């Protein structure tokens, strides 16, 4: 194929593209000038813009979901207790970390369902309908989580953080969880949850510690001091945990601890 022929085809394609673009623009202008279609086009553009904004917001929230789950929900408490439980039994990788985290996520979802529904009703749904702005939606949506965290915060932990917090104009920070800034509420809530998780973990690990001590004493009395007690006690701990329906009891206790405002 000769070069002049290729040049002719190229210019023809460019001309066709320009003509199509001009025709599309002219057609859009004619449709906009027709009675009623201009408003419809504007409504469609506004709806598409709103959907695009909601899509961007949704993708942003999905990227921030792990951080939000750790900061303002019961996830830190649940996953810490489950991890301590696994270590107390003597299992290193069973259940695996992914399973522990997945179970903690769904238990947290079950506990936080009323809070999530309230946040959606007061912030998510109005924002989707275009009735409020993003800033107003954040202010409304954070209130259910603020009330949830306020019911769980240890006053002593909050006071300790308030004492070391940087102050502007020597003004003491508000210690009421209902009105305190999020920069004080969120770390106080997280530290309180971790502290309570350690307390529950201590109670959960006691039965398995007793089994280890009993097995160790029996092995020493039999002169089998070279046998690791943890290896012998592991089957007994597993049998005990299964016999008492340990997973069901622990899950029910974790959920029940958040009923009635914590």
Automatic annotation (TrEMBL):
<keyword id="KW-1006">Bacterial flagellum protein export</keyword>
<keyword id="KW-0732">Signal</keyword>
<dbReference type="GO" id="GO:0009306">
    <property type="term" value="P:protein secretion"/>
</dbReference>
<feature type="signal peptide">
    <location>
        <begin position="1"/>
        <end position="23"/>
    </location>
</feature>
<keyword id="KW-0653">Protein transport</keyword>
<dbReference type="InterPro" id="IPR005837">
    <property type="entry name" value="FliP"/>
</dbReference>
<dbReference type="GO" id="GO:0005886">
    <property type="term" value="C:plasma membrane"/>
</dbReference>
<dbReference type="GO" id="GO:0044781">
    <property type="term" value="P:bacterial-type flagellum organization"/>
</dbReference>
<feature type="transmembrane region" description="Helical">
    <location>
        <begin position="234"/>
        <end position="255"/>
    </location>
</feature>
<feature type="transmembrane region" description="Helical">
    <location>
        <begin position="94"/>
        <end position="112"/>
    </location>
</feature>
<keyword id="KW-0282">Flagellum</keyword>
<feature type="transmembrane region" description="Helical">
    <location>
        <begin position="197"/>
        <end position="222"/>
    </location>
</feature>
<feature type="transmembrane region" description="Helical">
    <location>
        <begin position="52"/>
        <end position="82"/>
    </location>
</feature>
<keyword id="KW-1003">Cell membrane</keyword>
<keyword id="KW-0813">Transport</keyword>
<keyword id="KW-0969">Cilium</keyword>
<dbReference type="Pfam" id="PF00813">
    <property type="entry name" value="FliP"/>
</dbReference>
<keyword id="KW-1005">Bacterial flagellum biogenesis</keyword>
<protein>
    <recommendedName>
        <fullName>Flagellar biosynthetic protein FliP</fullName>
    </recommendedName>
</protein>
<comment type="function">
    <text>Plays a role in the flagellum-specific transport system.</text>
</comment>
<keyword id="KW-0966">Cell projection</keyword>
<keyword id="KW-1133">Transmembrane helix</keyword>
<dbReference type="InterPro" id="IPR005838">
    <property type="entry name" value="T3SS_IM_P"/>
</dbReference>
<comment type="similarity">
    <text>Belongs to the FliP/MopC/SpaP family.</text>
</comment>
<keyword id="KW-0472">Membrane</keyword>
<keyword id="KW-0812">Transmembrane</keyword>
<keyword id="KW-0975">Bacterial flagellum</keyword>
<dbReference type="GO" id="GO:0009425">
    <property type="term" value="C:bacterial-type flagellum basal body"/>
</dbReference>
């Amino acid at each position: 194929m000769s070069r002049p022929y290729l040049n002719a085809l190229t210019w023809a394609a460019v001309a066709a593209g320009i003509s199509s673009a001009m025709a599309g623009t002219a057609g859009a202008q004619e449709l906009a000038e027709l009675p009623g279609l201009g408003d419809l086009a504007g409504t469609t553009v506004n709806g598409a813009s709103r959907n695009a904004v909601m899509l961007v917001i949704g993708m942003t929230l999905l990227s921030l979901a792990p951080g939000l789950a750790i900061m303002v929900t019961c996830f830190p408490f649940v996953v810490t207790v489950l991890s301590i439980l696994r270590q107390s039994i003597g299992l290193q990788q069973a259940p695996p970390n992914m399973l522990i985290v997945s179970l903690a996520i769904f238990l947290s979802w079950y506990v936080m369902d009323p809070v999530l529904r309230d946040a959606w009703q007061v912030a998510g749904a109005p924002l989707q309908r275009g009735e409020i702005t993003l800033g107003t939606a954040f202010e409304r949506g954070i209130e259910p989580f603020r009330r949830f965290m306020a019911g769980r915060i240890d006053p002593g932990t909050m006071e300790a953080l308030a004492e070391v917090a940087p102050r502007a104009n020597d003004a003491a920070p508000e210690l009421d969880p209902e009105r305190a800034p999020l920069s004080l509420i969120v770390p106080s809530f997280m530290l309180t949850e971790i502290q309570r998780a350690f307390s529950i973990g201590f109670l959960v690990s006691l039965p398995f510690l007793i089994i280890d001590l009993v097995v160790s004493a029996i092995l020493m009395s039999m002169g089998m001091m070279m046998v690791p007690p943890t290896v012998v006690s592991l089957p007994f701990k597993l049998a005990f945990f299964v016999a008492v329906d340990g997973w069901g009891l622990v899950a029910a206790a974790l959920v029940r601890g958040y009923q009635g405002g914590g």
